[in-house]
Amino acid sequence: MPPELPARMGEWVIGTEPGTVLCCIGLGSCIGLALIDRRTRMAGLAHVMLPEAPASTGTRPSQPDKFADHAVPNLIAAMIERGSARHRLEAVLVGGAQMFRSEPSRPGLSSRDIGARNEAAVREQLGKARIPVRAAATGGGKGRSMRVHVPAGEVVYKEAAGLPITLLEADADTLRMAA
Questions:
Q1: What is the mean pLDDT of residues 60-79?
Q2: Residue 126 in contact with residue 86, Cβ under 8 Å?
Q3: How far apart are alpha carbons 32 and 134 in whole angstroms?
Q4: d(CA 161, CA 66)
Q5: What is the pTM of this model?
Q6: CA separation for the pair 88, 38 (Å, rounded)
Q7: Sheet containing 31-37: which strands, arranged edge to edge?
């Protein structure tokens, strides 16, 4: 069985070794953000818990990568530092479920629908970085887990009590080069 590198809540991981699998387990309202660079055969995975860090008090949050406004740019920077290029990155999102019923009193995003707010915040950060979202399995009311296979860039997710579903196919050229 290939080695798994888990991205726990508020963390991110980067994989470069063939056969490595990056994973986020138990994504409810959290967003699992995979960034893939097929040319360098590198992938990163962040487990984003909240849309943004509290208003600045002049100090850095104790766990900044649990917030989309820190985790997304930090993961991008770490991948670039390891040899990726921003223009080659592709994003895949999983999670963002509404785990608890909101009050239907307000149209749009309820302050209680943290899953939708997380997704919107991650997409906003990706938009600022000009990184396209290639695929997403978000929303709904069920938790999910995701796995990113390095170096092929294949992304598979599974809903609670469901079967695995391939969200982003492996790159055939990358698979040939890795063999």
A1: 92
A2: no
A3: 14
A4: 26
A5: 0.88
A6: 8
A7: 12-15, 42-48, 31-37, 90-95, 133-138
Cβ neighbors of 176 (< 8 A, separation 6 or more) are: none
For residue 173, the SS3 value is helix
Residue 87's domain is classified under what CATH number?
3.30.1330.200
CA–CA distance, 163 with 141 (Å, rounded to integer): 16
| Residue 170, domain extent | 4-52+61-178
Q: How many structural domains does the chain have?
A: 1
CA distances from 84 to 102, 109, 129, 138 (A): 40, 34, 14, 26
Is residue 61 within 8 Å of 70, Cβ to Cβ? yes
Q: What mean pLDDT value characterizes the chain?
A: 88
**Alpha-carbon 118 to chain mean position:** 11
pLDDT tens per residue across span 108-137: 555 568 999 999 999 999 999 999 999 999
Q: What is the pLDDT of residues 2-17, one digit of tens each?
A: 679 999 999 999 999 9
